[in-house]
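User: Hello, can you help with two protein structures?

Assistant: Certainly.
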Amino acid sequence: MLNKNITKIDVIFFMVSPYNTLLLNLSLKTSFIISKALIIFGFVSL
């Protein structure tokens, strides 16, 4: 679920920079947890 604005240069920059890769991984994990919680909440509300 990458943003459409992210270009190949940005991807290369992320791959080169460990700090940014760590931030990206954290944000991906956070968004995954949030989406998982929303799905569970959606099933419960049904």
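That covers the first. Now for the second protein you mentioned:
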Amino acid sequence: MVQAARDGMVNGEWVFYTADLFLNDVLGVAGNWKQRDGYDKEALSAYRFLFVLSIRDVRNNSQYKTFQAQVRNRGAVKFNKSKESIVINYYSATFHDAVLLFAKGLRTAYENPIRPRSYDGQLPLSVNTVVRWTWNSTFQGASGLVYINPKGDRADDLTIYRMTDEILGTFSVVAVYYGNEGAYRELRSINWRTSDGLPPLNEPVCGYENTRCVQITSAVSIGGSLAGLLILCLLGAGIRYCIKHRNVKSKHHSEWLAEWEDITMDALSTQSRMSLNSNSSLSKPSLRSDDDSASRRSKKKPPPSSGRLAFGTWQGRLVMVTLCEPHIVNLKKMLSEVKVVRGMSHDNILHFLGAVVGPDHYAVIGEYCSKGTLQDLLADETAKLDWIFRYSLLSDLVKGIIYIHGSPLAVHGRLTSACCYVDGKFVLKVGDYGLPTMYKRTIPAELTYQNYVSLYWTAPELLDRPNGPGTPEGDVYAYGIILQEIILREEPYSMYELEPEGKCTAFPSFSLETDKCFRTNGMSNFQKSSPGFETRKYSSDRISHPRMVPPGCCP
């Protein structure tokens, strides 16, 4: 709609139609004209010419309210959920009414052992016969008036919304289509916002390409007008370019900056949200029972995320907030870092949205992933992960790291299972990449338990550089640790009966052996012999193919 306003299509010669079944996509908070993104004025001017077609709202009907209350009461008792967490929409009511409709047809078929209207030769109690008894019938259901026409199709009531208050920008119902009557009625006079008050023509007066309105003038007047217009255009374009360049540059450097007060934090913690997600996801095809590993998980539970992840709402959208350690930030340096990560886009990396830079809070804002971190998902004992799903997670992880290695960053550097996020479609996204200024950590003189745990994914040769840029080989090492976590669903190095400090103190000897190997064979030989992520991705894709799954891996 903003583009339509810029193309001059809001002059009364055009109107626009769209569908919004649940009044959320266009007229809801996430899709209306008021987004506070700097384009609200253009969007408002275009939305004045927008018609929105929707299914008639039945949420205030007594039948729908009764159905909603009964579903939530039964769901709370049977599935041990809060009533507010049970989502009910129009389709839920239609499923209920479909069952009632079939039951009415079945009862009618038993009560009338005669051939129904439009009998087609089927047995009296066949499914086709029962369904035909429902044709040309009407009853009041949870989704409103259910009318099945003589052809066996349901005819819904539809409403048309139009902006009726141009100052506030609010939409109201202007017309209704009654499906059972096949009648269209206007509830109020429609202002077409044209010069004559009539609906726009099917084709603009000057044509779609504006070629029918050519004025014939002399060559001299045309030449003089064009010369003067050219001078004015060049002068105006120069001034506009300078102003626009300055404004765009200023906006580009600041639109990602967020104030802590602008973020509305979710009342649910990460762990409680993970619990809700796991309960609701058990019906997904990718989640099955894997009782063969349940006994191992009961002995060794992977550590939950450290509490640095929060969920909230920013600029009208759900986001994830990664809390960072407070420290002095070089804003000039950070601008160059943000420029790099904002230019990165891939299905398997977490999209950077913004950041909070002091003075009391420091955080990175990313796209919303409802399942939380991979570490939390593996630690949740109620989530039963089959092998196909595990292979899919590994494949997504490899794809994300390959993209990062081919980007200007060239390396992740801090890869762990806690910075891998899983969205509502169970797609893994690699996060916490780039932005070393924000993710910088203070290393105490005496390491704590959490400090030792955070070193589990660090390659031995990088232990003395905890805030270093990292290396591609270090990412390969971290991938191997995550691979172990996904396969065993246990914390790293769980096969060693040692505390985190004991595990990390053994790393220096590994580092000495690694350095010795590099000095003997050379780093280039090591890189040639070590398979890269492209090779690992090929292997992961072959393993994740249903025909390649080893027998007995899946329940």
